[in-house]
């Protein structure tokens, strides 16, 4: 609730209107049976004046009720939609402020569910709160008092019905809370399975994994179906049970009153009014139950949203200069462990790279190459040691300055849906067509971009599905070089290019980005032969630092990798 109150306060005016309209609505609802009673008695007496007068008041009251109901719904919706929109936007901003490790901790699909499904739950409860919360107690107490006034001798029928209905409601509420918590968890599981499947659809298809994937999805979906069905069954039993209780109360009241109706004809009007109040009490309890169930569901959602809102980004940046720094890189005794891991992935790593140099990083799979690159871009901070870029500790650089200095191109390129130029302008807002063309030339992308009907304004579909793997990599490199960064990290970023294109990219980088420090992580040694220096990683340690010739002559790990690759190439040719 603490999370929600500041958001609700922003809509004070709408809240007041919603609450005032509820009071008008309750008044109209409660007063109508009373008026009916007066009119019925007047009919029995043949008092036309009273029938006419009270009839008009009854119509006015009904109109007031309708208007108040509509106004209440409109303003409750204003508050609910406003709160949900603001909360969603703040949640999104919060997630944007997260470090990479924080997003990994929650998982992307989990955060998506929190931003969509959980926010929807909250929207619904806020709406229900301003429609029902003040209405239910007013209606309940008002109907109870008026029922007692109308037929005081039937007090025990009233109390009996209330005890049964409230007891059943409380029991169901307790049971339902557990079901709703499980529903939320199951929705998340279904989302995770569906998301993983759809993101990896090519792998699923190519490895004929559909039956396995269907089984996985069915398990998650079945669990959700089961718990949803349990909720449905409980409601299916609950509603008729409530109405049965109310009907028994009505029959009992009618039976008891009916015996005396000839002696007291006014009882006829009173019993009609009494039954109306009984029904209003029943509706108040049912709606109260629904509200409690929705509240318990929303409370879980609120907790999940609060958890994200309360999480401080595990990494913060200093404010300050947004200018890029020079391209030197220095690792000084850097050790790094992934959050939650026991053993470090990088151990006591030290090396220096001068601005403008090209360095290659090689090592067996899992040796820590990507991790090392991620530390240069400060996606994580090391456990110990320092990383300097342009002579400054990366922790002392503003985020803008670091992003302007370091461009990181990944093997699995992520382009955003929109257009090619919009993707390039994400890195360089004021990129001109000539600059785009230059960057595309470096990445060997201009040839295919210029064949597209809309060239640089060509659309990029979701997950860039309208481009081939090689084209995606070229576009990513284009985006990486467009701002002429001081440091360019290519993390296996040319793996989908053929040898000739890869060579052309390398030559263009040498020719056009002479001042840029290039860090190339490559599986193939042929990709880094021309590097000024090559770092050899083995189980998170640097075991070699030299050029190709030196390493081939003296470094056993490098020799092993080189030999294995040569043998593989020999076998292929
Ligand atoms: N986000 C993560 N959380 C926990 N452990 C991780 C994470 N990312 C990588 N690792 C682990 O760190 C080790 C090094 O991974 P890294 O990706 O740096 O290796 P790599 O040398 O780039 O491998 P490859 O050549 O296969 O890309 C691996 O054992 C990997 O399982």
UniProtKB/TrEMBL annotation:
Molecular function (GO) terms listed? ABC-type oligopeptide transporter activity; ATP binding; ATP hydrolysis activity
Write down the SMART domains for this protein, in alphabetical order: AAA (SM00382)
Q: ABC transmembrane type-1 domain: which residues?
A: 17-297
Protein name per Swiss-Prot or TrEMBL? ABC transporter, ATP-binding and permease protein
PANTHER family, per database record: ATP-BINDING CASSETTE SUB-FAMILY B MEMBER 10, MITOCHONDRIAL, ATP-DEPENDENT PERMEASE MDL1, MITOCHONDRIAL
- Give the top-rank taxon of the lineage listed in the UniProt record for this protein: Bacteria
- The record's principal subcellular location, in a coarse class, is membrane
Species of the source? Companilactobacillus paralimentarius DSM 13238 = JCM 10415
Quick one: a GO cellular component term? plasma membrane
The answer, when asked if Signal is one of the entry's keywords, is no
Which SUPFAM superfamilies does the entry mention?
A: ABC transporter transmembrane region, P-loop containing nucleoside triphosphate hydrolases
**Keyword ATP-binding, does the record have it?**
yes
The record describes its membrane topology as: Multi-pass membrane protein
**What region holds the ABC transporter domain?**
329-564
């Amino acid at each position: 609730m603490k999370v929600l109150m500041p958001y609700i306060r922003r809509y004070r005016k709408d809240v007041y209107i919603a609450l005032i309209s509820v009071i008008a609505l309750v008044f109209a609802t409660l007063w109508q049976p009373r008026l009916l009673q007066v009119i019925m008695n007047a009919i029995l007496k043949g008092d036309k004046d009273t029938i006419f007068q009270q009839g008009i008041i009854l119509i006015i009251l009904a109109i007031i009720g309708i208007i108040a109901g509509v106004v209440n719904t409109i303003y409750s919706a204003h508050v609910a939609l406003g709160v949900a929109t603001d909360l969603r936007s703040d949640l999104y901003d919060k997630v944007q402020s997260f470090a990479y490790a924080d997003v990994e901790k929650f998982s992307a699909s989990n955060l998506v569910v929190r931003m969509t499904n959980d926010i929807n739950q909250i929207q619904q409860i806020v709406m229900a709160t301003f429609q029902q919360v003040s209405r239910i107690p007013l209606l309940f107490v008002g109907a109870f008092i008026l029922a007692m006034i109308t037929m005081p001798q039937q007090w025990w029928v009233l109390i009996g019905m209330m005890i049964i209905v409230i007891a059943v409601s409380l029991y169901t509420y307790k049971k339902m809370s557990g079901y709703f918590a499980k529903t939320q968890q199951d929705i998340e599981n279904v989302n995770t399975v569906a998301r993983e499947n759809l993101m990896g659809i090519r792998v699923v298809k190519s490895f004929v994994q559909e039956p396995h994937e269907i089984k996985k999805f069915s398990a998650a979906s079945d669990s959700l179906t089961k718990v949803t069905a349990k909720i449905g069954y409980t409601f299916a039993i609950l509603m008729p049970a409530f109405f049965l209780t109310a009907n028994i109360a009505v029959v009992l009241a009618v039976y008891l009153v009916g015996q005396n109706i000839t002696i007291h004809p006014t009882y006829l009007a009173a019993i009609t009014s009494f039954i109306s109040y009984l029904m209003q009490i029943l509706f108040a309890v049912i709606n109260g139950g629904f509200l409690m169930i929705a509240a318990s569901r929303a409370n879980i959602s609120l907790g999940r949203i609060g958890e994200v809102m309360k999480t401080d980004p595990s990494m913060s940046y200093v404010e300050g200069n947004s200018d890029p720094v020079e391209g030197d890189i220095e690792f000084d005794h850097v050790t790094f462990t992934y959050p939650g891991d026991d053993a470090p992935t990088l151990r006591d790593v030290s090396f220096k790279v001068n601005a403008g140099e090209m360095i290659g990083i090689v090592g067996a799979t899992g040796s820590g190459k990507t991790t090392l690159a991620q530390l240069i871009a400060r996606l994580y901070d090391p456990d110990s040691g320092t990383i300097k870029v342009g002579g400054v500790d990366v922790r002392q650089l503003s985020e803008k300055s670091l992003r302007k200095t370091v461009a990181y191109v990944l093997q699995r390129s992520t382009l955003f849906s929109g257009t090619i130029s919009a993707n390039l302008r994400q890195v360089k807002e004021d990129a001109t067509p000539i600059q785009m063309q230059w960057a595309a030339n470096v990445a060997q992308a201009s040839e295919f971009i210029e064949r597209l009907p809309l060239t640089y304004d060509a659309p990029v579909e979701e997950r860039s599905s309208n481009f081939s793997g090689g084209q995606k990599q070229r576009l990513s490199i284009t985006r990486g070089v467009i701002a002429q960064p001081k440091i360019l990290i290519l993390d296996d970023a040319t793996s989908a290019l053929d040898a000739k294109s890869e060579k052309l990219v390398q030559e263009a980088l040498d020719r056009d980005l002479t001042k840029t420090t290039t860090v190339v992580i490559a599986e193939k040694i042929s990709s880094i032969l021309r590097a000024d220096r090559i770092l050899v990683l083995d189980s998170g340690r640097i075991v070699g630092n030299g050029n190709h010739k030196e390493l081939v002559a003296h470094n056993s790990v490098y020799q092993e990798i080189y030999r294995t690759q040569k043998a593989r190439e020999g076998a292929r040719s």
